[in-house]
Fold each of these.
Amino acid sequence: MLVLKKFSKQYAKNPNYSAKDVSFTVSAGEVVGLVGSNGAGKSTIIKSIIGVLPFREGTITVGGYDINRQPEKAKRLIGYVPDDHTVYEKLTGREYINYMGSLYGATEQQKKYAAGELAEHFGIRYALDTQIASYSHGMRQKICILGALVHRPRLWILDEPMVGLDHQTMMLLCNYIREYADDKHAVLFSSHNLDVVRKVCDKVVFIRKGRIADIVDLRVEKNFSLDKYYMELNGMQEEAGQFAPQPAPYALPQGGYPAPWNGAAYPFAMPSPPPVYPVMYPPMYPSAPTQSAASAEEGPSTGDETVSGGDKPVSATDAKKGKKHAGKKEGTRHV
């Protein structure tokens, strides 16, 4: 369905190739994942396949049509979900689906299916008559998916499709990708989520610095570790060996500070516990006199106890009277 042969792409004023000698195929009934670090060349490859980026070296054919020589026929076979959720915000969801269907030659029955059963499947049917400008990030991703599927493309391409989706919609999309491929369609998508790639893909194309580092058929390599291989591919051999279950770096004793690990090797350096200093708070009020144990046994206060202060004891009644004149200064006349 999709064939790339010696595809290369070099941007103007850049001596390095963004993609160099890329060759792989995506057959009907197959899900292929593009995996690579940021800047590896995944988006360049995808945008060249859909005809957005022009190129001069190599060939890309979709359903037998060359994307450079027969772009209209090739593009009609493609459904594309971008990573930036580009949509026409002034349209409603239903208008957007009908517009995309008209561009790709979808039948009225296909448009009704996309705005009906398919929209219900992805949980967005209730919002189809609302302007897209009011949609959330995840809802825009869903409407992009519907717009890409309205004409039932033979090749479905998704660039980071899981970004912005909640867990439930993510699982729905994973299942639908698998079902769509099983219905004799081809699916190509790029993702950094290796768990999704492992669940959905039949084949994985690893991209590194614009070149194909490896192509792994997961139908043959049943126990292949994507995480470990991805780390090794990017020069992180030490981290790659740590994907086996590891003990916790800190053991938490009851009622104590987490104690340092007991000396066993651990891939990440753990900082020493910070020193604990007593927290000093300034007193909000002057310290109140404490009542002695002997006076507490005598019973409640009668209002005539003595208060210590100065050279001789002062009764509580006299102390209250003195407070009324505490603010007066000598030589000051009060009216």
Amino acid sequence: MTVDTASGPTTVRVLTPWRIAVWVVAALLLAYVTWQAVGNFVGVSTRLQENNAFLAQNGAAALQSSVPWPALVLDVLIAPAGFVVALVVSRRMPVARTIVVFVTALCAVSALWFTLLQYVTSTLSIGS
């Protein structure tokens, strides 16, 4: 849609149902990734602190390991940041390009999330 103004014609983007549907689907998928990351954050930190307390009680304080807080926090922040970046990048694109941007964001978030998950599990030695 083009609107004539004093400075000349400008293009106005209208929110279409397809664009909103893409945003909602991407938000749900990225919310799932965030939910899993929060679960890892709580689960890993709790389990590791319990393991460290057990080791301290039994005189094996040298075997204690620290919680990888930076990796866990980054793990939680990846998906919301990916959604915001994809939203900003695709805000003036047609629907087909918006889909490509959000699929790319989902792939990037998933790759980084799995890499951080592997890093966290490789740095811990609980029960082994």
Amino acid sequence: MKKTIPFLLSMLCFLSCTVDRNIPDDSIIVDGNSVLVHYWNFNNVSGTVTSIAPDFSLLTSSATQITYEGSGAGYMDSFSPGYDSNARNNDTAGNGIRARNPSDTRSLIISAPTTGYKKIVLKFATAKSSASGAGQQNYSYTVDGINYSTTGLSVTTFNPEIDPTNSIVALDFSAIDAVNDNPHFKFKIDFAGDTASGTSGNNRFDNVTIEGVSLALNAPPTNLSYTTPNNFTINTAITNLVPSVTGNVTSYSISPALPTGLVLNPSTGIISGTPSALSPSANYTVTASNTYGNTTFQISIAVSAVVDTTLYLIHYWNFNSLPTGTLTSVSADASLILPNTTSIIFNGTGAGYLDQVSPGSALNAQNGAIDGLGLRVRNPSDTRSLIIAASTAGYKNIVVKFATERTTSGATIQNYSYTVDGTNYITGGLAVTTYAPDVDPMYNVVTLDFSAISAVVNNPNFKIKIDFAGPNASGTSGNNRFDNITFQGNVL
């Protein structure tokens, strides 16, 4: 009996110390599959604020925020130091937020959509500044964004301790179905007690977390995809191929086996590595799986030899070695394609002809060539065509450039076309098909870009034709002039 009396007295003392006081439930068992959906650590908040976006969120909704709504002189600002309680990601106790008095005319609203998640648990650390801070916090929530309720909540009120003592309040919504997958979910904290209407004091909050279980967790993954097709270069590390997928994935696999040197991470689905053997383009099926099923995606991968991206000077006419007198055909001064079958002729009828002119131009000069001589196309030029024959065998992305001008009485218009069969001339795909040259001594560079014209690639019959027009082209004097004609491209 003597032992019983002290025990009863101690229990009476404990009960008397907790009368009219709510102990927050910070021991709620969160589902093991839960993830952190929203998180406010407030460490970047400074000064007075009207709304606070989360420091972390799995959802992109701009509706996710904390506000201090109502009327009166109360406002929301930061305080320091904050609390370690409920901190995530090893965050420091940097800043927290204060809901300042008078607080009985305002509500702290945590707007936190739960779209795609269920079994929601909300936690936060809280305290009051002093005896003048609001002595009671009342909790409610809304599932329609307007009407607040306490139905289903086991904790609806709490009496915070005085800072720096703080407590974790945990609110379990896991049994409230209407909170699941809800874009309108909000949590409201109202303030009460004799001091809530005061002009000093505040309630303090830090490390607000909202956790939940993905709705996709109990379903097979879907919408698996990768960047495709992929053409990798042998012995060159690839940029990782990262999957995009909806839902929970526990493992990835691929069939058939990837080219030598490439690997699939079975946990993340990332394809990485350095291919060490050539491999033709092929389709590989990646499977993303979990307990409930799987989804697949077909990715195309090829491994090719090193691509030479050098821009080669395939043919070049600088005309500095032209002989005197009339010319019937002029070969390139330099050519990578041997034997050198290039030629420039002035094909047609009439008295027009080709000869040298001095000085030439330094524009578009290559290999250190000087502006020595140029090529002169003499009138009458309207009955003749300047034909530049230049094979592109073994090359692609062909670009042709040349410097050109005219004399005062020279042809005022140059018209450009090309042939891929050696006979029929067309302009299809050419961005520049005509040009009006300036009067000597004013050379300009004309660029003809054939890089997007597939028929010009690797073509031994490729030729360019320049026709002359305008009122002067039929004259018996005057000429057009050309220098530094280049054909450039990449090796196939």
Amino acid sequence: MHTHAIDAGLPDLARRFPGDPLPSVELLDDTDAWLHFDGKRYRRIDHRCWSAAPRLADMDRDGIAVQVVSPIPVTFCYRGDAAAAAELAALQNDFFARMVSNHPTRFAALGAVPLQDPDRAVEELRRCMGRPGFLGVEIGTQVRGIDLSDERFDHFFAIAHELGALILVHPSDQDLLPRTTSIGLGFGAGMPIETGLAAAALIGSGALARRPRVRLCLAHGAGTLPSLIGRLDKGALIAGMTEDSADLPSRQAAALWCDSLTYNPRALDAAVELFGPDHVLFGSDYPFPAMPEPIDDIVADLPVDLRYRICRTNVEEHYGPFPRTGAHALSAAGGHG
């Protein structure tokens, strides 16, 4: 879970939608490229982003049976024209579908949706979930400054529940607090803070109560939420909520999911305590420098049964057994065995 990919042949939609901040790929050679955003170089990427062969080689080396590929967050493009974002999402999902179709036992996918237009997002979500190997979609933590808790998104999340879709919530660089990015802390502080704020808004607004059983997975171990939850509970009690209320933030949070990408075992322990051992999924941020080294570093020393749940069975209980993986293919999820 939580790996990223992009099509090296992605059309430059800026030619059709001038003035919109959109991504494109500038190939330098067969193995290297620049990912552009809004006409500027955004990130250096390599063939692991678009080619199955190096991904499969890395997976075999690290003991990974199945990768779930998903968009690079800069490609959400919620601030631009909804028609452009819808076309971009469809192109990305077609690319993911080809990856899955070519290697159905090794790849699954989380698609993209144009969430600034919830009706178009529902249409693309339905298209994704009608394709083999799609488990759900990846979305940002906000849409043009509007929190995911806003009622305009209720229908989208209702359809996600209806279709059994997993929704991975991942912050985008474009949405981080300027206070964090201006001092070089976008990655270290900005992203977890943004995710924590988004989660707190979902909890405090009543959105989770309006959207029961929607499978929301918060990237990066849910960011700051595990550290905030005690204070959120106390704030609710000060405001008059009773300690036995089902709406206490920590009780609501138990319905959420997160990935394991915390970079710290104690932080992962806090996430497991908050969400429960059955609501944490193995995440890697492959193929970017944010990957743990070795890839199973964060989960390697967990009790065997918990590691197995995080690395395999928590997903399989909802989507069925992964094909071709064997009894223990994901038990270590990496080189520590």
